[in-house]
Design brief:
alpha+beta; four-stranded antiparallel β-sheet; 8 helices; binds zinc ion
Length: 285
């Protein structure tokens, strides 16, 4: 499943390729699962809209849309003025295997293609998702809220307060999307290792100084991974349709039984809230 750094990389790639382009028409497939908003609403919001920007919010890719003039003609005159600057958003969650492809119209339409946007530039933007855990939706007033706070923007005091009084293991708290949005399993394990905290520690029992180290580690790990272009472990591709990711060297994640890179103690794996957690029993306490 793509994590925050991968989604950031994909959003940046898309921003370069499709910002400024206009959606001329939209085709949506028959499978109901990928459509979180009604098909008619998705099509009506996208068609004739200009893609002003593409950015990441949590693990969502958000296309900022500007309603195009062509639509105004169909609306009553009174609403024309407010509508002319109308903002809307197209929100894509890639789920496990979702991909966004920018391609020429003659490119073969892959099996499991659920949406095709024809762009004024002549290219197409396609959403392909074999396992159908991905989701497409629109926010017609442009006020999409993913919940939680952005881990790369959160300030120390706010970060510390997120964990105040929480009896859950710190690992579960890090994965709780209502607290921090977009920190997934790999980066949670790596951040805990770098800050010397065991994943099973109760969040409330961690000192402010340790939380400060965790705060720095979360940002450091995410920024390193973004700099490397995400660290994919599954089958998705960047916005060009190329295999585009480099692997961040994981220090604990997926290294059960292998020697710790710092102290050579074998890395342990435990299951917390149904998710694998990896840690060094000597370096983390
Ligand atoms: Zn160690």
């Amino acid at each position: 499943m793509p994590e925050l750094p991968e989604v950031e990389t994909i959003a940046r790639g898309l921003a370069k390729r499709v910002s400024g382009d206009v959606v001329e028409s939209v085709w949506l497939g028959q499978k109901p699962e990928p459509l979180k908003s009604p098909a008619s609403e998705i099509a009506a919001t996208l068609e004739r809209s200009r893609i002003a920007a593409v950015r990441r919010i949590g693990k969502h890719i958000v296309f900022e849309l500007e309603a195009n003039g062509a639509r105004r003609a169909t609306l009553p005159a009174k609403r024309t003025t407010s509508r002319s600057t109308a903002k809307a958003q197209w929100i894509v969650h890639l789920g496990m295997t979702g991909r966004l492809q920018v391609c020429e119209p003659q490119a073969e339409v892959l099996k499991h293609t659920h949406a095709i946007l024809k762009l004024a530039s002549g290219r197409e933007l396609r959403f392909v998702d074999p396992r159908r855990f991905g989701r497409l939706s629109v926010a017609r007033s442009g006020d999409f809220n993913a919940g939680g706070v952005e881990p790369l923007e959160v300030q120390l005091d706010q970060f510390v307060s997120l964990f105040h009084g929480r009896k859950t293991p710190i690992k579960s708290a890090l994965l709780n999307q209502k607290l921090l949005r977009g920190v997934g399993n790999i980066y949670a394990d790596e951040s805990l290792f770098r800050s010397g905290i065991r994943p099973r520690r109760r969040a409330a029992s961690i000192s402010r100084e340790q939380l400060r180290r965790l705060f720095l580690s979360v940002k450091e790990v995410l920024r390193e991974a973004i700099a490397l272009g995400g660290s994919s472990v599954s089958d998705y591709v960047d916005a060009d349709g190329e295999e585009g990711f480099f692997q961040l060297r994981h220090r604990v994640y997926g290294r059960e039984g292998e020697p710790c890179l710092v102290c050579k103690t074998p890395i342990k794996r435990v299951v917390i809230a149904g998710r694998s957690s990896h840690y060094c029993p000597k370096c983390q306490e």
